[in-house]
Specification:
- By secondary structure, this protein is α/β, with parallel strands linked by helices.
- The protein is built from 23 helices and 21 strands.
- Strands 13-14-16-17-18-19-20-21 form an 8-stranded mixed barrel, surrounded by 5 helices.
- A hairpin with a 2-residue loop joins strand 9 and strand 10.
- The N and C termini lie far apart (about 125 Å).
- About 35% of the residues are buried.
- The structure holds ligand C2E and magnesium ion (2 copies).
- One magnesium ion (MG) binds next to loops.
Length: about 625
């Protein structure tokens, strides 16, 4: 341990300026001077209180060469002891030639790092000779400085290049590659900023959601290059119609969005929407071929009164949906009614998901009558939602939303799971119900568990009919659906094609599936009593079915006359409100009990044949 007296003499007598500074253990930087001697103060011109607690930068005067400064930093960062000889400034700005040395010290007890700084003022002659001869003894240092300067230039260049690269990468990440508009990612980031500005500065803005109406068909008929070119020209058009301060983005596919500051009136927004729709009416030509592709636009305003302004994009989307469903090639402003409808749909969607969890779906049964005997041949299971507060709901109230949610398959599965129990119920009651029919969506047909569910249901497959809906999507039957249909036939399940004659079923689907039963949609059946044209149409559909060896069901039979006409035209089975509306299994059991299964008394065949001739 050095005696304090000796240590004090370093303060007073030593002509070399000395200072001790605590260093940052992260990067060697001089963090805080904690001690200095008299000479240090004399040479640098600083008082004790101007040194203590200061960082090393007080020793870097304005005249210290930049190369030397960088050299000092590099050495400190590497914990290397070093010394420099250079012109530097005192506190008052005077220059002097100094040798500055730095020695690294460390405290093993605390782990602290320290720098000992020594400063010697070199003689005036030395200074002159240093200036005159370019300082031979300091040659090595000069070279090092020069290298440091060169290095810094190199680093600066490299840095600039990296900046440029980063800028172009960021641009790529924000840009839609095809159109050069903002992409979805950038839109989302920007949208947050716009919402932030709305909340803090009340800057209201409009959202225009744009969707091309026939983009798919342009792609299909003119090819993908044409589709790409169309998107590019739409992007140009949108840029052309908008202001620099508007954000124009392509969200993907043929969907575009514009964010536009509202300014003083909403008029500029509606004229923009108008103009977009108008310009998109013009034909688009590609490779000598020309086509049209209109656009629909939904507009919504984000204003300060909204509780959740983030909702504005969904609002614009709801308005777009409105524009589409009212004929396309037009634009709609988001209204309160749409707001209510979209909230209702959202509510319905979440209620439906919950209903799936709670398995709130039950089957109601509607009889199918044998047109020859009037006896029940089958009962079609039709889903009902046993809603906890609203009671029994028909499919029209929820199936579309369920389809959009992609949960039709689950609903079908729940209905089917209840079927076996229902059949046992009828059997236990001792009533005669030959078979049941169940509706299945396309998704359920492609569901590999369907066949398994049938096999494990305990239902005799010979008593089961599967009604295929949405056969229009089954034109090109996928492997899974084909496999399911083959398996169903193998098991002895009867296959029926539902709703034939509507947009949901097609002749191609009919041929591909080859069902045993064809159900003619009630929209054809209903007018046959009064409309000769409808009768001949129905007649031809029955003819198609018969020629393919199928049995034919008439749906929607509502009166005795109706029933007789259709039986006379050769329908094998009749179904409709005339024989019974869909009913609970208890009601059906009672009806079967009361009637002994006979729902109707067909008149003798000859009469019907005569009538058929009369009306044809
Ligand atoms: P669908 O399979 O063609 O069922 C016949 C529909 O016509 C039933 O409507 C029935 O109540 C109605 N209907 C029957 N006779 C008459 C009549 O004389 N006059 C009138 N005006 N209507 C009659 P519902 O029960 O509302 O079912 C509608 C549609 O919902 C069904 O049409 C079917 O496409 C679908 N659906 C029903 N249950 C299910 C199911 O469990 N799963 C799936 N995926 N879809 C189902
Ligand atoms: Mg059906
Ligand atoms: Mg039907």
């Amino acid at each position: 341990m050095v005696p304090a007296q000796i240590f004090n003499q370093i303060n007073d007598k030593c002509t070399e300026g000395l200072a001790l500074a605590l260093a940052s253990s992260d990067d060697g930087a001089v963090m805080e001077f904690q001690w200095c001697n008299k000479a240090f103060k004399t040479i640098t011109g600083y008082d004790t209180d101007e040194v203590l607690g200061q960082r090393g930068t007080i020793l870097i005067g304005p005249d210290l060469e930049q190369g030397v400064h960088l050299y000092i930093i590099e050495k400190l960062m590497n914990w290397e002891n070093f010394s420099t000889k250079a012109l530097n400034n005192r506190k008052n700005g005077d220059t002097y030639l100094q040798r500055m040395g730095w020695t690294h010290l460390s405290d093993p007890e605390t782990g602290d790092h320290w720098w000992l700084c020594s400063i010697i003022e070199l003689e005036e002659e030395h200074r002159k000779s240093a200036a005159r001869q370019d300082d031979h003894p300091a040659m090595a240092d000069q070279e090092i400085y020069a290298k440091a300067v060169e290095k810094i230039h190199r680093l600066e260049k490299e840095n600039a290049r990296l900046h440029e690269l980063a800028r172009s990468v960021a641009k790529d990440a924000n840009e839609d590659a095809l159109t050069g508009l903002s992409n979805r990612r950038h839109f989302e980031v920007e949208f947050k900023t716009w919402i932030g500005n709305l909340k803090t500065h009340g800057t209201e803005f409009a959202v225009l959601y744009i969707d091309l109406d026939r983009f798919k068909s342009v792609n299909d008929t003119l090819g993908h290059d044409a589709g790409d070119q169309l998107l590019v020209s739409v992007a140009h058009m949108l840029r052309d119609l908008t202001h620099e301060s508007d954000l124009v983005a392509r969200l993907g596919g043929d969907e575009f969005v514009i964010l536009k500051p509202l300014g003083k009136s909403a008029l500029n927004v509606s004229s923009l929407a108008d103009e977009i729709v108008h310009r998109m009416q013009a034909p688009f030509s590609f490779d000598g071929k020309s086509t049209t592709c209109s656009a629909s636009v939904g507009v919504a305003i984000a204003n300060g009164k909204m509780d959740v302004p983030e909702q504005v994009v969904a609002d614009a989307d709801a308005a777009l949906y409105h524009a589409k469903s009212h004929g396309r090639g037009r634009w709609s402003f988001f209204t309160e009614e749409m707001h209510a409808a979209s909230i209702a749909t959202k509510q319905l969607a979440s209620d439906l998901l919950l209903a799936c969890e709670r398995r709130e779906f039950v089957a109601y049964f509607q009889p199918l009558i044998d047109a020859q005997t009037g006896k029940i041949a089958c009962a079609e299971a039709l889903v009902r939602w046993s809603h906890p507060t609203k009671g029994i709901l028909a499919p029209a109230a929820f199936l579309d939303t369920a389809a959009q949610l992609g949960i039709l398959k689950r609903i079908d599965e729940i209905v089917f799971a209840g079927l076996s129990e229902a059949l046992s119920h009828f059997d236990r009651a001792g009533v005669d119900l030959p078979r049941v029919a169940v509706n299945v969506s396309a998704a359920r047909l492609a569901d590999p568990t369907f066949i398994h569910d049938i096999k494990s249901s305990g239902i005799d497959p010979k008593r089961l009919t599967v009604e295929i809906l949405e056969s229009v999507y089954l034109d090109r039957i996928g492997d899974m659906v084909r496999w399911t249909i083959d398996e169903l036939e193998e098991l002895g399940v009867t296959i029926a094609l539902d709703d034939f004659g509507t947009g949901h079923a097609s002749v191609r689907g009919l041929l591909a599936i080859g069902p045993a039963i064809l159900k003619i949609d009630r929209h054809f059946i209903q007018p046959v009593v009064s409309d000769a044209g409808a009768r001949s149409l129905t007649d031809s559909i029955i003819g198609i079915g018969k020629s393919l060896g199928m049995r034919v069901v008439a749906e929607g039979v509502e009166s005795e006359e109706h029933a007789r006409i259709l039986a006379g035209m050769g329908c094998d089975y009749l179904q409709g409100f005339y024989f019974g509306k869909p009913m609970s299994k208890t009601e059906l059991t009672n009806r079967l009990d009361e009637t002994g299964g006979k729902f109707w008394s067909p008149k003798p065949r000859q009469v019907d044949n005569k009538m058929a001739r009369d009306i044809s």
